[in-house]
Amino acid sequence: MVSALVIGFVFLLGGCSQKYTVDLTNSTRSTLVATLELESLGSGQKVLTKSVLGPGEYRTMGPVEAPFTDRVRITVMPAAGAGGFSERRRLDPGKSFVDVAADEYGGTSLTITVRRDQ
After folding, report:
1. Where residue 80 sits, what CATH number does that domain have?
2. What is the pLDDT at residue 3?
3. Is 22 within 8 Å of 61 (Cβ atoms)?
4. What ranges make up the beta strands (E) of the chain?
5. Rounded CA gap, 16 and 63, in Å?
6. Is residue 96 part of a domain?
7. Mean pLDDT in each 10-residue stretch from start to end of the chain (118 residues)?
8. Model's pTM, two decimal places?
9. How far apart are CA 69 and CA 60, in angstroms?
10. Sign of torsion, CA 22 28 34 37?
């Protein structure tokens, strides 16, 4: 009896989903490409939405839905030809405020700051 309840609860959770929304600000001097990706336990990753932001631009990404058992992350990288490396951060469900900045000398290193209003 107890095991049937546990199995039913696990199947119920599998059908639940969570919403993610990101308010993204590009505080760099370069054009950036940002993606929200689904990190799935069994099937790797999948791009949920993608956006291109010029220097100083602001954009809202989402809302996107993800199963309760999976996570969503943001990946930010310089646009093609700009050089540099991508940065990633896992997000919590709900609304996140993300600011992307470059190092103080205007180099290719990106810094992602995630803030949430509770």
Report:
1. 2.60.40.4150
2. 60
3. yes
4. 17-26, 32-40, 44-53, 58-67, 71-78, 87-91, 94-102, 110-115
5. 16
6. yes
7. 53 73 94 92 82 96 92 91 82 95 75 86
8. 0.80
9. 24
10. negative
